[in-house]
Amino acid sequence: MDALRSFVAGIDAGSFAQAANRLGRSTSAVSAQLKKLEDQAGTALVRKSGRGLALTDGGEVLLSYARRLLNLNDEAVSAIRGVELEGWIRLGIQEDFGETVLPEVLGRFARAHPRVRIEGRIARNSELCEKVASGRLDLALAWDDDTASAGERIASLPLCWLSATAEEPIWRPDGNEPLPLAALEAPCLLRTIACDHLDRQGIAWRIAFISPSLGGLWAATAAGLGIALRTPMGRPPTVRALDPVAHGLPPLPSLGLRLLRSDKGANPICDHLATIIRQALQETLPTDWMTRPQNAD
Question: The pTM is what?
């Protein structure tokens, strides 16, 4: 398990020197573990790629299994050490992650801590931030809107313009009609970002559809009622991402994802749940979307 953990840490950090620093080991010790894994696998696992590392075909296969083995190992250790943990915890999460990340998180946590009661809330960003700040949520996975002074930034997701999969565009930049925008009810961080970027580029727009839920927004976008701005998380196959240059739309930045915690001091239940959330995101999101550990060079 130690060798697998060093291998995964090296790939996540981008180098085994950084992984050694993160794991509190010497670089030579981590390199020896990698060599041991390659000897056991009978094939090279990594290769040089510029100033960084790249996985070989065998390395890609092992990385997938290594993450699952480590997660199961950590889950078992957590269950043994925390078998006496009991109480309750209040978790908030963005609707974008409700179907992809939340079931895995809740399942792992419940198996590790059967005596802990979880109160979950899927809510909008402003509500999640406010409830964590007021102590009504212990932990929340929220978009980084630059207002949170605390918390841990764990990922950065690309924003994209989304439309129906039909080949015929619902809006043309050289036409006389304003861009139809499909959005969630205000206040909505991504709705604000969409309007700001359209205004900066001088593109006229109108709100064509408003939904109180993400499911309704996906349905309206798939039906061709408007263009939406979201991350790729949870995007249904009936909705496609648009190339901004080809469609005359503003280029978009990435949006940070932050793990917020209430200011209530040490909480082992919260610590364990936060660890499981990080693991689930590492398995769900592309590696280059994840934020490197703060102690990485």
Answer: 0.69
